[in-house]
Automatic annotation (TrEMBL):
Subcellular location per the Swiss-Prot or TrEMBL entry: Cell membrane; Cytoplasm
Subunit: Part of the signal recognition particle protein translocation system, which is composed of SRP and FtsY.
Function according to Swiss-Prot or TrEMBL: Involved in targeting and insertion of nascent membrane proteins into the cytoplasmic membrane. Acts as a receptor for the complex formed by the signal recognition particle (SRP) and the ribosome-nascent chain (RNC).
Protein name: Signal recognition particle receptor FtsY
A Pfam family the protein falls into: SRP54_N
SUPFAM superfamilies per UniProt: Domain of the SRP/SRP receptor G-proteins, P-loop containing nucleoside triphosphate hydrolases
Encoding gene, per UniProt annotation: ftsY
GTP-binding listed as a keyword: yes
Chain positions recorded as GTP binding sites: 103-110, 185-189, 250-253
Tree of life domain: Bacteria
GO molecular function: GTP binding; GTPase activity; signal recognition particle binding
Family: Belongs to the GTP-binding SRP family. FtsY subfamily.
Alphabetic keyword roster: Cell membrane, Cytoplasm, GTP-binding, Hydrolase, Membrane, Nucleotide-binding, Receptor
């Protein structure tokens, strides 16, 4: 369905290269593994993760006395499933949740917030949005538009206001209005990254303090899959500043190098919770390892 369609570039890209590679060799040898390494690195799997993956594959092929290269595909799928194993989705069941959404401008943060809000609303959750990117008037307006479309309330201040003050008001409002889910947008300007990280730290501190025991706090980082290894280095910076709990990886439909899914998970040890495979609301999906691997390879 949608997932398979959204991943078609990656299927035609690195997945078919791997399939071709395994078909092209009549026996398993060092050269095959070197070619595999090259394909994986070019597909943005990341050097470190690629080495580990290929090493594991070699060991297993050896242990299981596999002679036919075509059998490597099954092993590779197993290894990838193990690497990617994580809980998908944003949990809103047990306790009211504050979802702080971070990421640099243009990655699809606002769209992701809108989509999460819409899905939660459809699941009969009481949702509140907060326009915490006070740096750009357009960001506040975009969120207003989503709030109107989804039918949720929005907490916003003037452009240039203190983002932490917006967060404070939003958490107070969510508690008094018994919201199930408060989604706080944040700034993502790139040119003043030092200030941005300081601002995000402050926002998280205020959210955590005001949420107290009443609300769970979760930080979701939105990354653009088409930026490849850049996404990985961005993630490291955000994680250092605000301790990221989960990742939404957008625009997987726009890249043939879907390998970034693997390097993000492995090199950061942060689970991917959502993936975006298109511009439609239905294209933001909970990340489920088995269906993801099946959509890629089957
Ligand atoms: P923000 O600056 O991070 O808030 O980014 P926006 O939410 O405004 O999104 C930037 C652009 O990316 C918009 O045109 C979105 O429609 C588009 N976008 C977001 N997610 C996806 C996705 O999964 N696939 C595709 N193809 N486009 C996406």
């Amino acid at each position: 369905g949608r997932l398979k369609k959204g991943l078609s570039k990656t299927r035609r890209g690195f997945v078919s290269q791997i399939q071709g590679l395994f078909k092209g060799y009549s026996s398993i040898n060092e050269e095959l593994f070197e070619d595999l390494e090259e394909i994986l690195i070019q597909a943005d799997v990341g050097v470190h993760t690629t080495m580990k993956l290929v090493e594991n594959l070699k060991e297993r092929a050896d242990e299981e006395k596999i002679k036919d290269p075509s059998q490597l595909m099954g092993l590779l799928k197993d290894e990838l499933t193990e690497l990617l194993n994580a809980e998908g989705g944003i949990e809103t069941q047990d306790k009211p949740t504050v979802l702080m959404v971070v990421g640099v401008n243009g990655v699809g943060k606002t769209t992701t917030i809108g989509k999460i809000a819409k899905r939660a609303k459809n699941a009969n959750k009481k949702v509140l949005l907060a326009a915490g990117d006070t740096f750009r008037a357009a960001a506040i307006e975009q969120l207003q538009a989503w709030a109107a479309e989804v039918g949720t309330e929005l907490i916003s201040h003037q452009e240039g206001a203190d983002a932490a003050a917006v967060a404070y008001d939003a958490v107070q409002a969510a508690k008094s209005r018994d919201n199930d889910l408060l989604i706080v947008d944040t700034a993502g300007r790139l040119h003043t990254q030092e200030n941005l990280m300081e601002e995000l730290k402050k926002v998280k501190k205020v959210i955590t303090r005001e949420a107290g025991d009443e609300m769970r706090v979760e930080v979701l980082l939105v990354l653009d899959a088409t930026t490849g290894q850049n996404a990985v280095s961005q993630a490291k910076k955000f994680d250092q500043a605000v301790d990221v709990d989960g990742i939404a990886l957008t625009k997987l439909d726009g890249t043939a190098k879907g390998g970034v899914v693997i390097s993000v998970t492995e090199e950061l040890d942060i689970p991917i919770k959502l993936i975006g495979v298109g511009e439609d609301v239905a294209d933001l999906q909970d990340f489920e390892v088995d269906s993801f691997i099946a959509a890629l390879f089957d």
